[in-house]
Inverse folding.
């Protein structure tokens, strides 16, 4: 079993930056691919970014060029650097993980709130 714990959410003004962290613990973390999914009020969950244990990355078009995902394998921690934040980025951000190269995510964090004021 793998446990994911997010931190770093908060309130920021439009145009500002935030960095989210996600610490993984448990079995198989060394080959864990991780990502971020967000859910805004009244909307469906939306893919944000993903990084494999080989450091391959993928982003949603809505955040490409503004967000950066990275992973510190020594600390079993993934980061989401969010720049040029917009009010429409307001959502609960969930850290997710999986062992397989593709398919649904096996593990979910508890979520952290990000609020961008205009």
């Amino acid at each position: 079993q793998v446990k994911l714990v997010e931190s770093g959410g908060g309130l920021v003004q439009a145009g500002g930056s935030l960095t989210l962290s996600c610490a993984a613990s448990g079995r198989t973390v060394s080959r864990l691919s991780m990502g971020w999914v967000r859910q805004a009020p009244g909307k469906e969950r939306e893919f944000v970014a993903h990084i494999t244990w080989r450091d391959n990355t993928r982003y949603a078009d809505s955040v490409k060029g503004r967000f950066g995902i990275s992973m510190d394998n020594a600390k079993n921690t993934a980061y989401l650097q969010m720049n040029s934040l917009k009010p429409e980025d307001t959502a609960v951000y969930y850290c997710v993980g999986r062992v397989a190269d593709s398919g649904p995510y096996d593990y979910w964090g508890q979520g952290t709130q990000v609020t961008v004021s205009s």
Notes: The CA atoms of residues 97 and 107 lie 5 Å apart.
